[in-house]
# Entry
Amino acid sequence: MNRVHTESFVRPVVDRPNANTRWVTAGPRLESAWLDEAYARARALETDPMTAAGVRLVWWRSGAAPADPARPGPQGGPVRAAEELGWHDLAAHPKAFAVVGRHTHCDVVLPSDGAVALRHLIVRATALDDGTPAVRVLDLRTGLGFHLDDDVERRALVATGVVAIRIGRYALVALPSGVELPDTRPQPEVIESASVPTQGRPSTRFVTSVTTMPPAPRLDDIARDVAGPGRARITLRRGDVWSTVDVPDAALDAGILVGRADRCETRVRPVLTESVSRVHVLVLREHGVVHAFDTASTQGTYADGERVRRVRLPDDGGTLRLASKDPVLLEWHPRAPVA
# Structure
């Protein structure tokens, strides 16, 4: 498979063992001024600009942020974390995406906030149907979600222009490549929609347009309310144990999460093994093409015996293997929409 080149820089690198997300209080919310400061840090990075089409993801956590009550210091008091700053270039390419979270397998590792999930977000540099460059952010069904400037918990968005979000005590800024950046962070114009926009919204210079959407469903969510024939069918199989779910078009467009997430329904959960990560694969349709994205799983996703990070699901059906030890098969059965 062809590798999509990306570059990353982290200062400093903080190595901590992977552990389950701790349901700790996220602490005082980060005010808009923190997002403004994160944008200023991102814009002032002393490094070569990104040359390929796409976005540069810059994450920042201030050393002046409130102390972390979940990390006691040597005297029993909370630890005040050092400043963290890093960036990751994300090309606008079907094979390119970034997984954001605390797990060391992630592309963007945010290690210092226990409220951040092991696999928290997936970020794509993409384009709308009319060719407008955009960035897409999907929450991987975490307990925290992400936020813009307000206190509304967000689960999915598509944005054109500069966009900044906060994840717990971290700020994440997406800078489009090849465009002039404004001196100050643009305030987002936010609308809510049930689906991905097809066209860029007319706006004045340096205005960020953000469309927020419902969360990506888990396969279990769809299994609870199967409404008859849909766009496709997904079957999970382990030996003689299996479960089949009809998948409507809207779910494919929103992205479907497959994994051993907490609070799974009994219909799908018995098929999965401990080898399958809590969030293992995202099945997503963009521009009429369906792909499976491995979301930084521990044991990997395999197609035709090869470990893959992203794979197009064939128009005539196919099978993926989730995990290398005690695996589960994901069978993809595309079907024509019912007239």
